[in-house]
Specification:
Layout: H1 12-59, H2 63-94, H3 105-108
Amino acid sequence: MNTDEVKHFIRPNVRIFFKECLLRAHEYRQRYYNTIFNLVMGFILVAGVSLALAYLYKGKLSPEEKAKREQQKKQEILDLIHRFHDKKLKEQQNLLSGLPIFVHDYEMVPQAVR
């Protein structure tokens, strides 16, 4: 059998037409998949960077906030000391002689029992 006598079951024009149609379909599908993949990866990148920046921003205090927090802690401690000191002064002023208060057993009994 000679190579010139080989029979083709499909015409050459039809073969070229199908090949070009399939090639265009493949290119279109690749472009479509590539676009979707790029959009999804872009969204994931933006979301990841946004979450990281939000976490870092909320995690650290600015120098002004640190100073304000320290000032509040100092003020709370000073208020506690002042209240304790005022309470001690009031107790001392209630006693004229500085002697401790004597509590009778009678005063300790509830009213209903008397």
